[in-house]
Automatic annotation (TrEMBL):
Name of the molecule in the record: 6-phosphogluconate dehydrogenase, decarboxylating
Pathway this chain belongs to: Carbohydrate degradation; pentose phosphate pathway; D-ribulose 5-phosphate from D-glucose 6-phosphate (oxidative stage): step 3/3
Gene: gndA
Source organism (scientific name): Cellulosimicrobium arenosum
InterPro entries from the UniProt entry: 6-PGluconate_DH-like_C_sf, 6PGD_dom2, 6PGDH_C, 6PGDH_Gnd/GntZ, 6PGDH_NADP-bd, 6PGdom_BS, NAD(P)-bd_dom_sf, Pgluconate_DH
Entry keyword set: Gluconate utilization, NADP, Oxidoreductase, Pentose shunt
Family named by the database record: Belongs to the 6-phosphogluconate dehydrogenase family.
Amino acid sequence: MAARAQIGVTGLAVMGRNLARNFARHGYTVAVHNRTYAKTESLIAEAGHEGDFVPSESTADFVASLERPRKVVVMVKAGAATDAVIDELVPLLEEGDIVVDAGNAHFPDTIRRERALREHGLHFVGSGVSGGEEGALNGPSIMPGGTRESYASLGPILEDISAKVDGTPCCTYIGPDGAGHFVKMVHNGIEYADMQLIAEAYDLLKQGLGASAAEIGKIFEEWNTGDLESFLIEITADVLQHVDAETGQAFVDVVLDQAEQKGTGRWTVQNGLDLGVPITGIAEATFARALSGSVPQREAGRAALPAETQGWDVKDRAAFVEDVRLALYASKVVAYSQGFDQIAAASAEFGWDIDRGAMARIWRGGCIIRARFLNRITEAYERDAQLPLLLADEYFTGAVGNGLAAWRRVVAGAAQNGVPTPAFSSSLAYYDGVRAERLPAALVQAQRDFFGAHTYRRVDKPGVFHTEWSADR
Ligand code: ATR
């Protein structure tokens, strides 16, 4: 078989198939392969006319059809399947060839695979790909890790097929080994937080105004013309105005209120705990999904727990809507600020040297959290690449400060009226915590010294101290 394909894709389920079509539509000759050949045949039958595909039934033929250095995109089920495919590919590849894992791998697996392939003289690129099926076909946001050397030949192809915003590709080199999959994981964590915040805003408007889903959908539509403009706000407006064909009711009202998850939120929170980074917005969002699915606990709670509320009587409806908008924006800034802190912490821990401004730039298009607001994040890191706290950037202090009184009113109102707003409330608590002159952590540290002789430091002199507490008792 003549080696003429510039890039190959193995694993032709929906994502792999659409990525292969995207490459082909951009003029690349694409080698395609799937464990079950029928999927390859169906791709050729249905999309063969879109470009130059080279189908192979065997992995050996697939590899042989690629120009060197070979670039193989693996798009199979994350986990054992990825290892199985890699094991099959490795003996067929030669030094300098590049294996791209475009699936949703957990970054420690990517670190492990990169090390193993390096020993064979191969480049392993763990790449986040965001945007779902539609993004894969028409332009995703792409987050490739691995070596800079591999990016030199692979990067231009990935940039070519990525989404573009103002002519700038939503793809950039992220950093060594697991950096690409790590950043994709945090992207998903931020997505969890953003979705939860939007859901809480919806609930506040529903409970505070007694508004219908369609009315709230209109409010979101309006919000999508301002600072909050984003894919998630846009689809929320559509979802809320959607009517269930079967019952004629608002669609959202016939959906069971139990949110599921595939696990990237959990990975993000677990890593936040490992690194000691307070990603409270992402954690609350992940736990809110868990609470929604805690059916026996909810049944018991519903039956036994009083509310002691009077029913929310919002007087100035327009002012309330604006308060919720401002509180949503401020809470969202906190969630993103925390996510970017997590990226900075991991970058330092693993030696990745990740450019946070570039992250915000490649998330402006193609992915689920794409938003106008990300430009502000890029600008903030352009002002100061080492910014210790995104919230403290001059633009965000202004934007959040502007909504601070509204944010407090909304959280207080929610608490008084028994509306659960874990993400709004914890974001405000984080804001107050991170700006506090002095925290009650002093007492926690004193307690630790009392019962465990864990020692403490003092405000008035250097050194580490322990008090003989028994003398006090
Ligand atoms: P789907 O998305 O169609 O439900 P999946 O089980 O998530 O499928 O698998 C996605 C892709 O991974 C498919 O291309 C699948 O190949 P098959 O079409 O042959 O099922 C591929 N895949 C899963 N496990 C694999 C393995 N162990 N080796 C090679 N490819 C595998």
